[in-house]
Structures are given as C-alpha cells and as structure tokens.
Design a protein that fits this description.
The protein has one domain: Decaprenyl diphosphate synthase-like (Undecaprenyl pyrophosphate synthetase, 3-Layer(aba) Sandwich), CATH 3.40.1180. Helices cover about 40% and strands about 15% of the residues. It is built from eight helices and six strands; from the N terminus they run βααβααβαβααββα. α1 crosses α2 and α3 packs parallel to α5. The radius of gyration is 20 Å and the shape is globular. It binds farnesyl diphosphate (FPP).
Length: about 240
C-alpha cells in the first residue's frame, strides 16, 4: 500500500550559487531566485495538506560566508518575511522559525515576530524557516537547559529520556520529518535536524533550488509513496508463492 502524503517535509535548499554561476550571474542572484522557489513550494505544500514544511534557509555555518553575501541574505530574508505576508494569509500558512535566532539582525527578528504573530491563528501548513540553525547547536542548547534543571534540583539525570530531550528542542511540538529532500544532487545532511530525522526517508533531487518546482516535489512524493517504512522493526509481507 502506498504511503500517505508526509506530515512533515524538510528541505535542504542547495544550488543557488551554482544556478547563478551557470548563467553568468552573481551568486546573490541565485538566492533571489531561490526565494521565489520558497513561495512556490510553500503554496504547493499547503495545497497538498502537508502539516509542516521546514526549510534550511541559513545554517550556523553560513555565518562564515563573505560579509556581503550574509548581508544580502539577511536583507532578502527580511524582504521575504514582510512581502510574503499576503501569500501566507491567503494560503492559511502558519509561519515559524527555529535556530539561534538571537544571532540574527534586530530588524529581521522584529519582522519574524510580527509575521509569526500575524499568522499564529492560521490552521494550514506550518512554514518553518531554520535560521542560524545547526542540528548540533540545537542539541547543545537542549542539553544546557536540561543541565540547568538538574543543577537547580528540578530534575534527576535518570529522569532524562528521549521524550524529554525532544521536549527541549526548538519546536517540541513539530512532528518528526517523514521526508527530507535535498536539492542540487548532494548526498549530505549538513547538520540539519539531526535528532528529528532519525527515521526520515531521504530524497535527493538533481534540480538546483532556484529551478525546483511543484513537479520536482511531486517526484519526491511519488518516490516516498513507494517506500516501506519500518522504524527498525519488520513489516508484515506476503512472501511470493513459488511454484511446486
Ligand atoms: C544554498 O545555496 C542555499 C543557501 C545558503 C541559503 C538558502 C537561501 C535561500 C533559498 C534564499 C532565501 C531564503 C528565504 C527564505 C527568503 P548555495 O549558495 O550553497 O549554492 P551552491 O552550493 O550552489 O553555491
């Protein structure tokens, strides 16, 4: 039986720079085109009834990029969060963000908060941007909170279990991703949602993020529907009958 549409799709958006360079454009033009794709894919996920779409928009490691590229990305991000409010409302999308958000420029944080508040009552897809995000950093932050509770005498180390670690992640209520898509052909997880993707299915698309469209998403979903998820267990299967 085919798997149903994933509840949570997480995407590593890669290939903006390559897309621009292949066209003789500056790398930042690739990011600009990539922000268009964000809107297209968010709208499609909303149409398909996906519960959560998490996009890796800026990693902790991305702070090491050239200053001008970072400044451009922050301006683009701010513009996106402001300009796409209509799209979010029209599509009943809820907007959220995960990561070390305190590292973002003040203006970006202000607009993030406004957009989250504006869309907080929407009941459709949760569009979550991972910003200044790292999977290891998220686990470090969770461990610090747990250690502080132990130090304050509110928690015993032996009470810490998997559910408690999950409850201390940036967005504890998120369903774990069922499907992780990476664009531009790279076969890496790059520190994305390390705890949450333990049992996720992976799909790598050769399309570069600025050219990724609904049909590429459908290709990933068709591949996902054919998978057999076992979560470490066994799936009941009818053995093929052999003659004689
Ligand atoms: C990877 O491309 C992508 C990023 C570093 C950031 C993703 C950013 C966007 C899609 C645009 C802005 C997003 C929003 C939400 C407005 P790359 O530069 O690593 O590409 P390359 O590997 O081809 O150089």
């Amino acid at each position: 039986m085919a798997l149903p549409t994933p509840r949570h799709i997480a995407i590593i958006m890669d290939g903006n720079g390559r897309w621009a360079e292949a066209r003789g454009l500056r790398r930042v033009k690739g990011h600009e085109a990539g922000s268009e794709t964000v809107r297209v894919i968010a709208e499609e996920c909303s149409r398909l009834g996906v519960e959560q779409l998490t996009l890796y928009a800026f990693s902790e490691e991305n702070w090491r990029r050239p200053r001008l590229e970072i400044e451009f990305l922050m301006r683009l991000l701010k513009r996106f969060i402001v300009n796409e409010r209509d799209t979010l409302m029209r599509n009943n999308l809820r907007f959220s963000a995960i990561g070390r958000l305190h590292r973002l420029p003040e203006g970006v944080r202000r607009e993030l908060t406004r957009t989250m508040e504006l869309t907080s009552r929407n009941t459709g897809t949760n569009l979550c941007l991972a910003l200044s995000y790292g999977g290891r950093a998220e686990l470090v932050d969770a461990m610090r909170e747990l250690a502080a509770k132990v130090q304050a005498g509110k928690l015993k180390p032996e009470q810490i279990d998997e559910a408690m670690v999950s409850a201390h992640l940036y967005q504890p209520e998120m369903p774990e991703p069922d499907l992780v898509i990476r664009t531009a052909g790279e076969m890496r997880l790059s520190n994305f949602l390390l705890w949450q993707v333990s049992y996720a299915e992976l799909f790598v698309s050769d399309a570069l993020w600025p050219e990724f469209r609904a049909e590429h998403l459908h290709e990933a979903l068709a591949s996902y529907a054919r998978r057999e998820r076992r979560f470490g267990g066994l799936v009941d299967r009818l053995e093929p009958k052999t003659a004689g």
